[in-house]
Amino acid sequence: MMDQRWRPTVNEREFIEHALQSDLRVDGRRPFDFRKLKIAFGREDGSAEVELGETRVMGYVTAQLVQPYKDRPNEGTLAIFTEFSPMADPAFEPGRPGEAAIELRRVIDRGLRESRAVDMESLCVVAGKHVWSVRVDLHILDNGGNLIDAANITALAALCTFRRPECTVGGDDGQQVTVHDPEVRDPLPLAIHHLPIAVTFAYFGDGNIMVLDPTYKEEAVMGGRMTATINSNGDVCSIQKAGGEGVMSSVIMQCLRIASVKAADITSKIKTNVDEYTTAKALQKVKRTPVLVAKKNDVPDVTMESNDGALESQTSKTPNDAQDISKGDDDHRIKRISPLTRDRTVKPKQISMFLGGPSNWDPYSKGVSLSSLKKSLSCRLKACYIALFRSWYSYKLNISRTIKDPPAIPNVKRHEDAKSRLSESNPEVESTSNSGIAGESDEAKESVSPKSLKDAVKPKHKRKKKQHGKS
Questions:
Q1: 321: closest CA among 312, 330, 308?
Q2: Which of 82, 204, 208, 427 has its CA at 20 to 30 Å from residue 73's CA atom?
Q3: β-strands 130-142, 77-84: how paired?
Q4: What are 159-174's pLDDT values in tens digits?
């Protein structure tokens, strides 16, 4: 038993024991009620913080590649480490872990490893050489009683959200391990079969009185303690009895039945919080672009001269390369050639090509050169200007021709043919039209005959005759 931060007096001890005999507790709970449970997750995968009443524990999970044990070459390892800080409880001393820290670590480690909750064989990369070693660090932030249950829930929540890097095996001998960055390949979660939940009972008196989830005041008064680790299916993973108070077998069986119900409730809470965290991370996740990997390929480069005299190098693709470039996100990009030459030459050269590129939603997935875009725009503008100039010039030329040579008046025969057709369809109209033809013939002839600027000016002899007639 560790040193208590609160040492009760005789009266306080008797008050707590008499209240428990009446099925009452100091904090107002019933004997088999848990305190309020809160589970929070950090920004990074594998970090969690649990509040069980006034008890607060933070956990963090890490992993690294190590050599396996000789007796288990195909299995990874799982280790639990605890840290008791004086900030959590004045009774905790810094430095080497005390008895309480060692006991807490062993109880949680036994419940996780002996129950095979985490699939250790899935942590093997190369048998006998490389396996993943998973480490769980538990930091006690505030000791409000029942550290075992709070630390156990913290470890499970952190393991459920942990993601290890993906690795591949290759090389000439097939033993070379490549660990991929999270930006290249998404990390993988751990294979967890079930969640072993630790449920702690405290015994008072002769072992006839028991309560669930004791506080630090009840721990100072209790005569013994039992921790049962059970999963949601009712399977007993481990049992740990501490304290000198004896307990009957019937009481132990009653505690196991109560623990199985509480374990199912806590398991559902953990899974609900983990699902909410995973959904939130998926919504915040940004589509990653694959990292550009250099790849050598023989491609002839062609230099072309622009209109302003500057020379720019452009690479020409072979038909086989063009087929490879049109493949979605694995498009190849050809690197520009920096040296400029004055002659228009073609010479093969080792050019570094890059795997990856913009995503399918990018309208310029094949890449667009700024210089080529400027050239195409300038050529189009120049063609538009030339077309406009030609149309304007032809329009002016037609106007000048019409002024010099006026267009010929259409032949009168067309007018006569139209009237003949109209008369054949309507004979009544023919009589009226014939009467008007005689009077209009002279005017039509005058209108049909071509006129010029000389006709607009009347001769002098005509003007004189009009004046003499008036006089």
A1: 330
A2: 82
A3: parallel
A4: 999 999 998 888 777 7
